[in-house]
Amino acid sequence: YGKNTIKLLRLHKEGNKHFIKEVEVCTHLRLTSCHEYLDGNNSAVIPTDTIKNIVLVLAKKNGIATLEQFAIDICQQFMTTFCQVGYVKTYIQEVPWQRLHENGAPHIHSFTYAPNGIRFCEAEQCRNGPLVVFAGIKDLKLLKTTQSGFEGFCKNEYTTLPERNDRILCGELFCKWSYGECKDFDFDCIWNKIRECILEAFAGPPDCGEYSPSYQKTVNCIQMHVLCKVPQVQVIEVVLNNIFYNVVDMKNLGLTNDKEVLVPVETPYGSCACTLGRK
């Protein structure tokens, strides 16, 4: 049981310059007994309102240096404070605020909402067990207008999809990875590096791109690129929800539409998922 969607904004000031982290936190506990379920005995139950208050107090006392460290702090707080807690799991996602720039200069206290992928993390710990940390990015929309196709697929009497060697590839990406033993990691640096790897693997070189024969191959390329470039990552999960675009037929309007006007296909949409880890 636990508390979902604890929303808070942490403001940190250095002189006249302001820094912010806005997050949503979900914290769940498992107690060492289940008397509250079986007997209606609540003596060991930590109220969810208390869970919320602990999260807020930790934000006040410790700040939010990184999402991962904040999640670790929450897990450790419940493990060290309450002997009846056998397991704790905390999920945190960040609201994507970016510092506002005016004429190239960063503003000291103004920010803009820039949804360019949502950062999140998870930390979980069992009593007498290791602390496990995950991190990830979700709702990252990616699109390239060429260097993608889909050919040679299985066909039968139900197949209506034509083969294509030049199409738009668009998708909404979810990516989650696990770390090994956390040894003073620079979580911000690692997260930014992984995001950079995702973009590089999806797009290819900036002057020519890289051909993708399928969404599945693109997912695998992203995973392989991250595992090659970021040694701290042990296992990486990628889900790519496909967003398709159809070329508008303009023959009745007396026009030839050479893939210049397209409309997105809202539903149904495809999805490709894969989890890849080191040996």
UniProtKB/TrEMBL annotation:
Pfam families: Uricase
Alphabetical GO biological process terms: purine nucleobase catabolic process; urate catabolic process
Residues involved in 5-hydroxyisourate binding: 48-49, 150, 167, 216, 242
Record: residues binding O2: 48, 242
GO cellular component, one term: peroxisome
Keywords assigned by UniProt, alphabetized: Oxidoreductase, Peroxisome, Purine metabolism
Protein name: Uricase
Biological classification of the source: Eukaryota, Metazoa, Chordata, Craniata, Vertebrata
Gene name tied to this protein: Uox
